[in-house]
Amino acid sequence: MTKLFNPMQIKDITLKNRIVMSPMCMYSCMEEDGKVTAFHLTHYTSRAVGQAGLIMTEATAVQPEGRISANDLGIWSDEHIEGLSKLNENIHAYGAKSAIQLAHAGRKAQLEGSIYAPSPLAFNDKLNTPVEMTKRDIRQTVEAFKQAAVRAEKSGFDILELHGAHGYLINQFLSPLANKRTDEYGGNRENRYRLLQEIIDDVQSVWDGPLFVRLSTNEYHEDGNSLDDILYFTNQLKLKGIDLIDCSSGGVVPVSVSAYPGYQIKRCETIRQTSEIATGAVGLITTGLQAEEILQNDRADLVFIGRSLLRNPYWAKAAADELQAELNAPVQYERGWR
After folding, report:
1. CA of 81: how far to CAs of 149, 152, 229, in Å?
2. pLDDT tens across 96-122, in order?
3. For residues 174 and 218, what is the distance between their CA atoms, to the nearest angstrom?
4. Where would a tag sit more exposed on the chain, N or C end, judged by fewer CB atoms within 10 A?
């Protein structure tokens, strides 16, 4: 029996298969208000119709200044709950579970006005220099993640993911490449981990469902976090009760990465084995055979599918055909499914 189409239990949530729609920014809030649009309803619902087991929204900003762009989804206000609730209603109607990626862009925000980061270092010569966050700023941001978790529960999400990768705010605090602070939030890796620890503590005080963390498991820079540092973070996350590490890479500083099918999976496998925590594999996973190999060899517990699901909302059906596996069709599509 194929493992890709086996259910997976995470706390009280059962995923019907191991296929996750990876979070991918859509930049489609045309009113710049962070609210769900007709596009989002079509985009995410179609992948639920296509039988992905878990649909995860794009990076969703916990503060307006934490958006990557002015067109990002937001969850910093109760006004966002109505649209997100409708989105969840649509996703759940087709048997998929839903997740939201809670995020703050930090120094990678491309917005008018001030942007914020652990240290006043611009990401590159095209982006603005951020304001160094005070302890009050840090406390407000931690509280924003907590309130976002409250709104996520009210909106009907099954799973939360904290975005600690790709050079955004949490990743900036974790990495010595972006964090040059000399207080208790900077310096050694214990201090650099402190912001993420505080966010997890506050989120878990209001949320008892499954909680994932996405990490950049390789920073592709000799002065960045080493594998030993990454394993320190993942061991701490295991102790905090995090349910799964979503293993991505890069984005902290501008670097050229040689990407190839499965290029991030080795570290995903290492984290799974060393920290004894569930992992999600992501990065140029394009075929059912490739996904099945990852799962059958215990290299990961879930596969996060990105660009392939942009190309084909029915990627799960294509993978099932490739693996000669059974996959139930939405009743409306049964005539064309066989």
Report:
1. 11, 8, 37
2. 999 999 999 999 999 999 999 999 999
3. 12
4. C
**Residue 2 placed within a domain:** no
- Do the domain assignments include residue 1? no
Residues ≥6 apart with Cβ < 8 Å to 186: 118, 119, 179, 180, 192
Please return the burial class of 52, using the count of CB atoms within 10 Å of its CB with bins 0-12, 13-18 and 19+.
buried
Which range marks the domain in which residue 58 is found? 8-337
pLDDT confidence of residue 322: 96
Q: Kindly tell me the sign of the dihedral angle through the C-alpha atoms of 302, 202, 40, 123.
A: negative
Residue-wise pLDDT tens digits, 239-291: 999 999 999 999 999 998 889 999 999 999 999 999 999 999 999 999 999 99
Answer yes or no: is 262 within a domain: yes
In terms of pLDDT, which residue wins out, 257 or 1?
257
The tokens of 187 are what? Answer: 């310096």
pLDDT at 240: 98
Instruction: For helices 227-239 and 194-204, give the axis angle rounded to 10 degrees.
Output: 20
The answer to whether residue 265 sits within a structural domain is yes
pTM for the structure as a whole: 0.97
**CB 8, CB 14: distance < 8 Å:** yes
Residue 21: φ, ψ to 5°: -75, 115
CA–CA separation, 81 vs 125, rounded Å?
Answer: 37
**Total structural domains in the chain?**
1
